[in-house]
Design a protein that fits this description.
This protein is of the alpha/beta class. The chain is built from 18 helices and ten strands. The strands form two sheets. Strands 1, 2, 3, 4 and 5 form a five-stranded mixed sheet that branches. The longest helix has 17 residues.
Length: 441
């Protein structure tokens, strides 16, 4: 059993843990009830047999620990990401009357700019909770006329596809779907997997972002609404979650040079992968002038309440966990990152739930220590789609991981252009989370 230890004169609690068998890191806390909940202090957690480190310093407010990229701790043990959430909440008035007022001002502008046009906003949809709830609020509460946009990387689950159909039918919202060629999509996925970088699904995130901008331009829509919530997801650390167009090109080029992937397939232009270069990114931000709004940043929002109302009104179904509505994303979150890099992104949503008071830190730790849910047949489907043998899969998973900073990226350009991006973020031409995450040195 773990032993509770207290160091004289130390603001931290030291707890001996047992090793997590799969990840090889100390996560399981059996005596959490005896010490967790000391919100005024941080915890310094000692691992019994942890390879690579002896101590894990845990935030006193959430379950982020010192292994999270870029994290720092204040004298009260609160981590820098909790402080960032507090700062964003103050700026956006999250969950307060002031926040509601700020959101209503934006909604009035969206309605005004959309007069005389078939749509007044674009909303990206995935079949997940946040985007589905945003569709519901836009139509039932805010009187908007959205066009739903879906970027299909051809790895959707049946539940996600059904959720999109049910939600859009219930709330009578038309859908624009961009289906990328599975040949191009899978070639990029194979390159990222065999090169061994963390951002396996980066091409989906970037393709989705560029598709929203292209559709907004095509239909002359001036506003794009996104279903991200920093209170339920946080602003994820940069360390293992970087992506830009130059990075994708760099990884694919190296994989091609090493004969890890085949030559570029010829596909119909209508299904080409929509690579967002820096020129395209800046062009849309500076000249197309579509504005981004994340309504959930202003609202008192919880996923649990959103799921309940969506299920009741539209027949929306839960797909088993955060980001599991897409098989590639599910493979990334539940198998690839935990097994290869020892990183479990569930700490993002669980830490957010701690901050919101939805779960105790004790309960969050208990959930975090359980194995991630892995869909039956997910690994075999991944290997079949990408043409990867069992031996190649095992060898790749065992090989040392690589980092985005080993490749050509736009990161220095983002930093150099930080004043411009700050200007654009203040005017909602790029998201504030992009500025905070990518433009800081």
């Amino acid at each position: 059993m773990p032993r509770l230890l207290r160091s004289e004169g130390s603001p931290y609690t030291e707890v001996v843990l047992r090793e997590h068998a799969e990840l090889g890191v100390c996560l399981t806390i059996e005596s959490a009830a005896s010490w967790f909940g000391n919100a005024s202090t941080g915890e310094l957690v000692r691992g019994a047999q942890s390879p690579g480190f002896d101590w894990v310093k845990v935030c006193s407010q959430c379950i982020y620990d010192h292994r999270v990229g870029g994290i720092t701790f204040g004298s009260n043990g609160v981590c820098s990401y909790c402080r960032q959430v507090d700062e964003l909440s103050a700026v956006y008035g999250t969950g307060s009357a002031a926040g509601e007022g700020k959101l209503e001002e934006r909604l009035q502008q969206i309605r005004s700019d959309g007069r005389g046009r078939p749509f007044d906003c674009i909303i990206g949809v995935s079949g997940g909770t946040d985007s589905s709830y945003l569709i519901r609020m836009a139509t039932r509460q805010w009187g908007l006329r959205p066009l739903a946009v879906h970027y299909d990387n051809t790895w959707n689950t049946a539940t996600a596809s059904q959720n999109i159909a049910e939600v859009l039918s219930t709330y009578q919202v038309p859908l624009y779907t961009y289906v990328v060629s599975h040949l191009q999509a899978d070639r990029i996925f194979r390159a990222f997997f065999l090169i061994g970088v963390p951002e396996l699904d980066a091409s989906t995130d970037l393709g989705y972002a560029y598709t929203l901008r292209k559709v907004a331009s095509q239909y002359r829509v001036r506003h794009i609404l996104e279903g991200h919530s920093f209170t339920t997801e946080g602003v994820s650390p940069l360390t293992n979650n970087y992506f830009d167009g130059k990075y994708i090109q760099s990884v694919v080029n190296e994989a091609a040079q090493n004969n890890l992937i085949g030559s570029e397939p010829k596909v119909a232009r209508a299904n080409e992968y929509p690579l967002m270069t820096l020129a395209r990114f800046l062009g849309h931000a500076a000249f197309r002038k579509a504005k981004f709004t994340r309504p959930l940043w202003f609202m008192d929002y919880t996923k649990e309440a959103a799921k309940e109302v969506l299920a009741r009104e539209s027949g929306w179904r839960d797909y088993g966990g955060h980001h599991l509505e897409n098989r590639m994303t599910a493979f990334f979150h539940s198998l690839y990152m935990p097994k290869k890099f020892g990183v479990d992104f569930r700490n993002n949503s669980l830490s957010a739930a701690c901050r919101q008071g939805i779960v105790s830190r004790e309960e969050a730790w208990a959930r975090y220590c359980k194995e991630p849910y892995i869909e039956d047949g997910l690994r075999s489907y991944f290997q079949m789609r990408l043409g990867i043998s069992n031996k190649l899969f095992e060898d790749t998973m065992k090989a040392d991981g690589r980092s985005w900073n080993e490749f050509d990226t736009y990161k220095r350009d983002f930093e150099r252009l930080a004043p411009i991006f700050r200007f654009l973020a203040k005017r909602d031409r790029v998201t504030m989370s992009f500025y905070l995450k990518y433009c800081q040195k």
